[in-house]
Design a protein that fits this description.
This protein has ten helices and 26 strands. Strand 3 and strand 4 form a beta hairpin.
């Protein structure tokens, strides 16, 4: 999902940075053209504390702003203003009154992001960042808008900036692990207040291999405020373990799951005895909290230096185009397929504009080739259910064969819907344009 693009920088040593932006915590990971294995910037030097609390603190009567863990420590003295929920505040366009001054939430979020980059500046100067990939849980239009506004305020002139959601960061993380991680499905259990799951599977019957994520939230698996009394606390833990185990079995049963990643503060308490026993049977299990930021860094790396694995796989997430779109055209007298939009690109980036000559008649066909929900035996044979969607050009003036030029524009106003806009351009000075524009919506799912 391209947010901003600028020219290439000179020099060979370039950095690709992944920034996981969350309402509670954020993270920065990076790799470079000299070191392609991603590392995470510690929030505290010399430690493995990677989470940067997404908060600010302004000391009363001064223009001093602190962020992250410094802000949390300073807030203990009560001599300033503590600001949290920066990301959700920006999404909701909140205003915050601080010492009589009203601050826009996006402005506060931008200040926080800028201060986070002070941590990265210990690694390398900011002008060495070639590609910056933001990632967050969701990728709706409001999230993209907020990230775009933050990017504009950062003033990163020589840096290309992109965005991907946590699902895609998960995919890129696994793409940069040993091949054994891609032989079976994988699951993330993400427990911050409410337990979420991300199930990533591979369809190896296709070329390239198609990967996709199923995600959900278990609303009844909520992290309780554990009691101090041991007996009561033990009962709470056992009840939570039972609920989580039941949900996990529903996801894992009858599936080949090879790896599991436990993420979030919910797994810091030792409540998941039976759940972990079940998860660990024949699977590799990892506990950590920097998968998304590393996946974002790897996604940035693929933008600059595509790997062999990246070319052999394609990710079809919720916000991705899940079909190849093209036209059958005549080229040097032979009918040929002209690809216009490729499966795997972000829906909001699915745009193209071409001009063609209409050979005859008053219609043409758009070729749609879905890469999902295909019968396995057809996939194995490399045969996909091609659809031909006819675009009728009612009212098109009658002209000689090949004497009508059409401008065709395609985009996706919403997920799963392709909009085709066709305009009569006439034929040079011989036949003027009629000015007629036709629009057709094609449902892709």
């Amino acid at each position: 999902m391209l947010l901003e693009k600028s020219g290439e920088k000179k020099g060979n040593h370039k950095y690709m940075v992944g920034f996981d932006l969350g309402d509670r915590d954020s993270q920065i990971s990076f790799c470079s053209t000299l070191q392609t294995e991603a590392e995470t910037v510690p929030a505290v030097a010399g430690t493995k504390q990677y989470n940067i609390p997404t908060v600010l603190y302004k000391r009363t009567g001064t223009n001093q702003w602190l962020s992250g863990r410094e802000a949390l420590r300073a807030a203990e003295d009560g001599k300033g203003i503590f600001v949290e929920n920066l990301f959700s505040g920006a999404l909701e366009d909140r205003k915050t009154l601080i010492e009589g001054v009203e601050y826009d939430a996006v402005t506060l979020l931008t200040l926080f992001v800028k201060k986070c980059f002070n941590l990265f500046s210990v690694i390398a100067p900011l002008d060495r960042i070639e590609i910056l990939m933001f990632t967050a849980r969701n990728s709706d239009t409001r999230v993209i808008e907020v990230v775009h506004r933050v990017v504009e305020a950062l003033g990163l002139r020589n840096t290309r900036v992109f965005f991907q959601n946590h699902e895609e960061s998960y995919y890129y993380y696994l793409m940069h692990q040993p091949a054994e991680f891609r032989k079976a499905g994988s699951v993330i259990l993400d427990f911050e207040e409410t337990l979420r799951f991300y199930l990533l599977e591979w369809n190896r019957r296709t070329t390239p291999v198609v990967s996709f994520v199923t995600q959900g939230k278990w609303k009844d698996c909520v992290l309780p405020c554990f009691a101090e009394e041991e007996t009561e606390k033990a009962g709470q833990m056992e009840a939570l373990d039972e609920r989580v185990l039941e949900r996990i079995i529903g996801i894992f049963q009858n599936r080949d799951i090879g790896s599991v990643f436990l993420i979030g503060s919910g797994f810091q308490e030792d409540w998941a005895d039976r759940s972990l026993q079940y998860i660990c049977r024949g699977r590799r299990v990892f506990r950590g909290n920097n998968l998304y930021s590393k996946g974002a860094a790897y996604g940035a790396l693929e933008k600059l230096c595509p790997t062999k694995e990246g070319k052999e796989h394609i990710f079809l997430g919720r916000e991705k185009l899940k079909a190849n779109i093209g036209l059958q055209i005549l080229r040097e007298g032979k009918e040929t397929y002209l690809p216009l939009l490729d499966a795997g690109i972000d829906c909001c980036d699915a745009k193209c504009e071409k001009e063609f000559y209409l050979e005859s008649g008053s219609s043409y066909q758009v070729t749609v080739t879905p890469l999902t929900n295909v019968f396995p035996e057809r996939e194995a044979a490399g045969k996909y259910p091609v659809r031909y969607e006819t675009v009728e050009l009612q009212g098109l003036p009658e002209r000689p064969k090949g004497a009508t030029r059409l401008s065709v524009f395609m985009d996706m106003p919403e997920n799963g819907k392709l909009r085709v806009r066709t305009e009569d351009m006439g034929f040079g000075e011989i036949y003027e344009s009629s000015g007629i524009v036709w629009e057709k919506d094609i449902l892709l799912q």
